[in-house]
Amino acid sequence: MNGNLTRRIRICGTGTAAPANILTSEEIDKRFGLPTGTVFKRYGVRRRHYARHENAATLAAEACGKALERAGLAWGDIDCLVASSATMDQALPYNAALILAAAGVDGGLISAFDIGASCLSFLVGLDTISYLVECGRYRNVMIVSSDIATFSLDWATLGESAIFGDGAAAAIIRQSAPDERSCILASRIETHASGANDCHIKAGGSRYHPRRPGVEFDPLTFFHMNGPRLFRTVSRELPRLVAQLLESAALTLDQIRLVIPHQASRLALDHLAKRLQIEPGRIVDIFAESGNQVGASLPTALHHAVESNGMQRDEPLMLLGSGAGLTLGGMVLVY
């Protein structure tokens, strides 16, 4: 099971980026011949950004640049880049290499690699790399998630097409100074493999390659999700995970300043608040204005907590979510 050792880690800068194009719920209403207001009422998304010519690497590079600016650092101060996205820009090379190229970083002085766990990629990346920062292997680490869902949506049906958006978010971490209280108190990540086929895009690898005989490739490029089954599993398992996480952190839920969830869906966010009995003001909810940005969703919400929700230093917060796999995870940290 996952360890919960306290790590003296400080988030010292965050940044986000999104494509210029915006799709509103009213435009989706028109596309499907629905009365104005139907999509927003049913799915809770007012608008989201979508890519036309952008790619995930360029969005990631932009988010990284903004995080560097907020941290008062430059690329020369970063010795590790972790790309923690749910999707790939291309099969090879890995996302982190493409992001460094998009950012114009060269010279081989930065270690770069990918850590992926679908929508929880940022959380898993932060949890994993924090130990290497804690022990001094890396000094300043850039963790970035960047996902473009647009091209995998099946616009023949409404469903998931109404809720997903594109975007990127980055965070820089370092060791906390002796006079700083910032730390990771506890983390927990679980994979329930019984749900491995409940949320998928089959194309993109060797299993369903277009050059395999008898493969009709185009349908495999669409995103598919068994929403009811996933919802039941998450609803059943998440309260237990939260309880174990809080026990490891030696805190109660009332002591958590903000809960920052993956922005999965309107139903998921509302159910989370009700199931855990958290008042709306303590949950970071940006779903209406950005939709579900896949792996970028959680770090975008974290950035929003810092920039717009009044998150202050030395206050405890909780990152929480689920993703394809089926992966569940959470982290309690002092900002």
Describe the structure.
The protein contains nine helices and 13 strands. The mean pLDDT is 94. The protein starts with 8 loop residues before the first strand and ends with a strand. With 335 residues, it is of the alpha/beta class. The longest helix is centred in the last third of the chain and has 23 residues, at 227-249. The chain folds into two domains: 9-175, Peroxisomal Thiolase, Chain A, domain 1; 183-334, Thiolase/Chalcone synthase (Peroxisomal Thiolase, Chain A, domain 1), CATH 3.40.47.10. It has helices at 25-31, 38-43, 56-71, 95-103, 121-134, 227-249, 266-276, 287-290, 297-307; strands spanning 9-17, 21-24, 47-50, 80-83, 111-114, 141-147, 167-175, 183-191, 199-200, 224-225, 258-261, 316-323, 327-334. It has a five-stranded mixed beta sheet with strand order 1-7-6-4-5, sandwiched between helices. Helix content is 30%, strand content 22%.
Q: At the first level of CATH, what is the class of the largest domain?
A: Alpha Beta
Number of domains: 2
Q: Mind summarizing the main beta sheet?
A: 5 strands, mixed
Mean pLDDT: 94
The coarse overall form would be globular
> How far is the first residue's CA from the last residue's CA?
25 Å
CATH topology (fold) name of the largest domain: Peroxisomal Thiolase, Chain A, domain 1
CATH superfamily of the largest domain: Thiolase/Chalcone synthase
Query: What is the rounded Rg?
Result: 19 Å
Structural class of the helix and strand makeup?
alpha/beta
How would you spell out the order of helices and strands? EEHHEHEHEHEEEEEHEHHHEE
